[in-house]
Amino acid sequence: MSNDLLEQITASLVDSDPDGTAELTRQAIGAGMEPMTIIDRGLVPGMDIVGEKFRTGEYFLPHLIIAASGMKQSMELLEPELSRRGEKAQTLGTAVIGTVKGDIHEIGKSLVATMIAANGFQVHDLGVDVPTEAFVAKVKETGANLLGLSALLTTTMTAQREIIEALEEAGIRDQVKVMVGGAPVSQEWARTIGADGYAEDAVGAVELCKELVA
Amino acid sequence: MRPKLNILSDQLAEQIIAEGFELLMDPGIRVHNEEARRLLGDAGADVDLESQIARIPETIARRALETAPSEFYLYNFEGEAAVHYGGDSVQFDPGSTAVTVLDSETQEQRVPLTADFVRYVKLVEMIPQLDAQSTAMICFDVPEEIGDLYRLYLALNYTRKPMITGAFRKDTWWTMKEMLVAMAGSGEALAAKPTAVFDVCPSPPLLWSDLTCQNMIDCARHGIPSELVSMPLAGATSPVTLAAAVVQHTAECLSGVTICQLAQEGAPIVWGGSPATFDMRHGTTPMGAVGTWMIDCAYTQVGKALALPTHAYLGMSDAKVVDAQCGLESAGGTIMAALAGVNMVTGAGMMDFESCVSYEKLVIDAEIIGSAKRLVAGIEARDQPIALTLMRELGHRADYLAQPHTLKWFSKEFYLPSAVIDRGSLDAWKKQGAKTAFERARDRVNQLVAAYRPSPISDDLRVELREITTRAARKFGMDELPQLPED
Ligand code: B12
After folding, report:
1. Cβ contact B236–A107 (<8 Å)
2. CA–CA gap between residue A209 and residue B172 (Å, rounded)
3. ipTM above 0.90, yes or no
């Protein structure tokens, strides 16, 4: 019976049924299943299958994004259970991400945020047109070890440099790896401003995150 | 008869327009610009100050549609009406605001510098198929903050053709206007004979950002035309169905026309856009996708139904080099745009979505544009009777090459491409070096740029433009502008 439920949770992610994932998670909690078991044997295998199907070309972005939202809903139900047990979901790291001030391009940043979250990172998405101070404050507050800065305009990419300088001034530059991205941004630009990494798309961003925390 | 593509049934077009009006009320339009909120509120829209959402009644938008001109002209810098925005006129300008240029030698993308853009402007001047210039790339040898106005400054030094441009900030718009006024002689002269259009982009879905909204209002108040560039990205920032993406486009543009007309009744404004179907594998915004073209053609039909001039970003490719994909995508979009009767088609020379421009692609696209313009000129009888007189005279002789009738008509009936298009024999092609289209295009680029003749603006005006631009540059730490390249 319990194995059945776990398999169904996995299947609900693969079948793009996020409400199903949430409902099944509720049932599993009700049945007294350990939250870590639900995560490790229900959710994670589901996300792995979805990720693999995306890589082979069978699945597309909507499958990925919808599975990620199922995973998120489920985790929201599981977190109180975990903390009651004094446990913590294993995360690969904590990332703060946002589009820099003066820039309202949202899509790429959100895609990156979703993809990193779906791959085991805890993500704080600050949105768009985010002031430099807000990035610094959020990194301090969350103790994040990753910071993702998106900029789509040649006029706003300079803010990425500003933010790195502000991290230095705040004395927390060493605590956090800074990743930059967006259409006009390049590997070379990342080097010039002293960022720790650059990725050209969301799949690359996931790999980059994993590399940076390894 | 002009061949014409109407991609929507009348009934579907009507429903799209009706739903567009309904979106203006519910969920309404987010307006992040204070002045626009005030204009809308004064006109009777219900504006929520907290959420900044304006609910705009259909009557207000309808009234704006009545005062917005259904046509206007752009003038070249010699004072002649050069571009007709309205009716089914079809005209072309290069894709705008690229962040890289495809290097002619290495065929790799690199950062554009002053000399690159100047070369591009000269090339555009020399291509007869292109009706206007655009501020096609960002130069990285000046501070980012003046990237928008600097490209206008460069273009004005070399162009006779009208400009399609845009500002990235509120303050830079004023510097750009100052340059255009200097060129025209006075603000009144500029308003009477506008030489430039400013692109203004609502943000999908249903949002006017402060910056772009202010640009639109400032344009309206100074008699400078603005061009709406609404860009639903189907499946990402708008519903995925093509018809629904057009509904969103309709609402965004209706709100734009309304704000513009409230700022200044009768101000010229263009129903335009740069939508795309979102690529569900790569998360990109393909301009070469057939769905993208269909959305463009559909909203163009809507714009015409509302009696407004039209614009679209079409004729681009997502390819990274000038290859077969590049040609087929550019041709598809260009032909569709021409058939749809888009007044200003922006995109020639542009590739890698909207990131890169290529000199070689530009001259290849010019051939596509030439063909498309020929296509929409349609087939005419030319003679009465069409063929009987001549064919009875010649009987069964295949002697048409020798006929004055042939000499009279062939160059009007056929589109005659440049040497970029290879129509020679295999042997002739081999003898000329067995060149690929890219290599032939590179030859033509060099020829055209070499044949460029300087624009006739006075030295005083050149100095004035440089002073205006230098003043702006000083604010951002650049005391001396880069030298203009020697001819
Ligand atoms: C959609 C769009 C808009 C929409 C944005 C809607 C929204 N809600 O996000 C709107 C209409 C609002 C808009 C406005 C403007 N835009 Co715009 N826009 C685009 C467009 C067409 C697509 C961007 C996009 O969403 N792509 C899809 C996503 C998935 O890709 P992406 O953003 O590149 O993100 C991927 C990677 O870059 C990377 N990535 C992104 N962020 C990060 C962060 C990290 C940490 C990492 C590791 C990776 C990473 O991963 C992402 C996922 O794969 C681009 C053209 C282009 N080819 O990029 C122009 C473009 C970026 N815009 C441009 C311009 C000029 C503007 C305006 C100034 C126009 C105007 N005058 O009004 C305004 C600026 C407003 C502002 N202050 O920000 C120019 C920029 C040119 C330049 N030199 O800077 C471009 C290049 C188009 C052009 N050629 O003219 N735009």
Report:
1. yes
2. 37
3. no
Distance from the CA of B205 to the center of ligand 1, in angstroms?
A: 14
| pLDDT digits 0-9 by tens, B140-175 | 999 988 999 999 999 999 999 999 999 999 999 999
Cβ–Cβ < 8 Å for A92, A119: yes
B354 lines ligand 1 (CB under 6 A): yes
pLDDT band for position B1 (cuts 50, 70, 90) = confident
Task: State the CATH architecture for B66-377.
Answer: Alpha-Beta Barrel (3.20)
Q: How confident is the model at residue B487 (pLDDT cuts 50, 70, 90)?
A: low
The residue type found at B207 is L
Ordered by where they begin, the domains of chain A are: 2-84 (1.10.1240.10), 93-213 (3.40.50.280)
pLDDT in tens, B391-450: 999 999 999 999 999 999 999 999 999 999 999 999 999 999 999 999 999 999 999 999
State pTM to two decimals: 0.91
- Is A151 at the interface with chain B, CB within 8 A? no
Q: Give contacts of B168 with chain A, Cβ < 8 Å.
A: 153, 155
Ligand 1 within 6 A of CB of A109: yes
Question: In Å, how far from its chain's centre is CA B462?
Answer: 26
Name B271's bridge partners. Answer: B310
Closest residue of chain A to B282, computed from CA coordinates:
A61
Domain boundaries, chain B: 10-63, 66-377
Distances from the Cα of B473 to the Cα of B147, B307, B467, B468, angstroms: 10, 41, 10, 9
| Alpha-carbon distance A202 to nearest alpha carbon in chain B (angstroms) | 8
Contact B138/A108, CB-based, under 8 Å? no
